[in-house]
């Protein structure tokens, strides 16, 4: 497996007249901030976002990290048991990522940052989220021994 991480180092704004204006400015600047670190895997990947009022002016920030995992689902389309029975692999189940066809190249990025376009939860202007992927692979076999 190849692991890449996109780190949106920070999108931060200060001096806005309202919390919504500050948040909209932080979200607008977010897509342009980022670095890619290849072959490093960080556990508990997530993001922090929030807004804060200081002296009557509002600021907002976003810090986020995403993992991209690139892998081949299985080296072949068959599995041989310890007693020599060969079965066709119908599907490869990869932990919390999803189900895939055998022998395919895949790329998955998570966590999704789609929720960053929305204002944090009302009454709680900050949000800390941590994610931990399960990358354990299982083969689903067809009931048709070869």
In short:
The protein has 146 residues and is mainly beta. It contains one helix and ten strands.
Keyphrases for this structure?
mainly beta, 10 strands, six-stranded antiparallel sheet, 146 residues, 1 helix, 55% strand
From the N-terminal CA to the C-terminal CA, the straight-line distance is 29 Å
Percent range for β-strand residues: over 45%
What is the percent of helical residues? under 10%
Rg calc: 21 Å
Shape: rod-shaped
Largest sheet: 6 strands, antiparallel
Q: Could you give the order of the helices and strands?
A: EHEEEEEEEEE
Low-confidence stretches: none
Number of H/I helices: 1
Counting DSSP E segments of at least 2 residues, the number of strands comes to 10
Average pLDDT level = 75
Structural class: mainly beta
Q: How would you characterize this protein structure?
A:
This protein is mainly beta and 146 residues long. Helices cover 8% and strands 55% of the residues. It is built from one helix and ten strands. The protein has one helix spanning 19-29, and strands at residues 2-16, 35-38, 45-54, 57-72, 78-80, 86-94, 98-100, 105-110, 126-131, 137-145. The strands form two sheets. Strands 1, 2, 3, 4, 8 and 9 form a six-stranded antiparallel β-sheet that branches. Strands 5, 6, 7 and 10 form a four-stranded antiparallel β-sheet that branches. A hairpin with a 2-residue loop joins β3 (45-54) and β4 (57-72). The longest helix has 11 residues, at 19-29. The protein is rod-shaped. It starts with a strand and ends with a strand.
């Amino acid at each position: 497996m190849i692991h890449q991480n996109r780190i949106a180092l920070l999108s931060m704004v200060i001096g806005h007249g309202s919390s919504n204006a500050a948040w909209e400015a932080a979200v607008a600047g977010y897509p342009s901030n980022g670095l890619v670190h290849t072959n490093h895997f960080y556990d508990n990947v997530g993001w922090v976002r929030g807004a804060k009022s200081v002296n009557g002016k509002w600021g907002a920030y976003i810090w986020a990290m995403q993992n991209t995992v690139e892998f081949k689902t299985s080296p072949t389309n068959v599995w041989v048991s310890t007693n020599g029975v060969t079965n066709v692999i119908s599907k490869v189940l990869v932990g919390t990522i999803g189900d895939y066809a055998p022998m395919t190249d895949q790329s998955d990025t998570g966590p999704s940052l789609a929720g960053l376009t929305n204002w944090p939860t009302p009454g709680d202007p900050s949000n800390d989220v941590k994610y931990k992927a399960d990358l354990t692979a299982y083969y689903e076999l067809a009931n048709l021994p070869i």
